[in-house]
């Protein structure tokens, strides 16, 4: 096993730090606005983009561990934001679908989330820098297959 170069470790630390700060900012904005947690937004947005999905497929897209995703989906179903039904192909599986209330909640959360994104990135980086950042991040953390 080789030891990463010092600059690689610095890049790693900065990547983790930037991600953690971005999430703190987004969570704080949603909390300040009295809105549900960021993870709910991610799930609602994934369902809006993908349509009804199995939890295991949502897990790959949103990157939430299975046990946390199950807990979140149970709470979101109780809040009327998603519907959970049995999967017709697999009696043990479930299908998660976005409700109208879930779509409305996602839309209501977007302004606070967008403000966090704007403050964390757009106010600090110019357009060319944002393009470079997106390209570099795609190389080290490619988007999961949809």
List keywords for this structure.
146 residues, mainly alpha, two-stranded antiparallel ribbon, 6 helices, 67% helix, globular
Topology:
Layout: H1 6-32, H2 38-50, H3 55-62, H4 66-78, E1 82-86, E2 94-98, H5 100-122, H6 127-140
Helix pairs in contact: 1-5, 2-5
Structure description:
The protein has 146 residues and is mainly alpha-helical. 19% of the residues are buried. It contains 6 helices and 2 strands; from the N terminus they run H-H-H-H-E-E-H-H. Strand 1 (82-86) and strand 2 (94-98) form a beta hairpin. It is globular, with a radius of gyration of 18 Å. It has a two-stranded antiparallel sheet with strand order 1-2. It has helices at 6-32, 38-50, 55-62, 66-78, 100-122, 127-140, and strands at 82-86, 94-98.
Series of H and E elements: HHHHEEHH
Please state the structural category: mainly alpha
Distance between the termini: 32 Å
Lateral arrangement of strands in the main beta sheet: 1-2
Low-pLDDT stretches are: none
Radius of gyration: 18 Å
């Amino acid at each position: 096993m080789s030891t990463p170069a010092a600059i690689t470790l610095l890049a790693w630390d900065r990547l983790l730090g930037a991600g953690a700060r971005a999430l703190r900012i987004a969570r704080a904005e949603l909390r300040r606005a009295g809105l549900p947690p960021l993870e709910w937004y991610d799930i609602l947005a994934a369902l809006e983009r993908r349509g009804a999905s199995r939890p295991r497929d949502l897990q790959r897209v949103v990157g939430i561990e299975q046990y946390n995703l199950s807990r979140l989906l149970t709470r979101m179903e109780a809040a009327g934001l998603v519907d959970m039904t049995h999967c017709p192909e697999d009696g043990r599986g479930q299908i998660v679908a976005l409700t109208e209330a879930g779509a409305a909640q996602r839309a209501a959360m977007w302004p606070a989330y967008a403000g966090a994104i704007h403050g964390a990135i757009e106010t600090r980086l110019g357009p060319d820098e944002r393009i470079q950042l997106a390209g570099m991040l795609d190389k080290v953390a490619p988007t999961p297959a949809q």
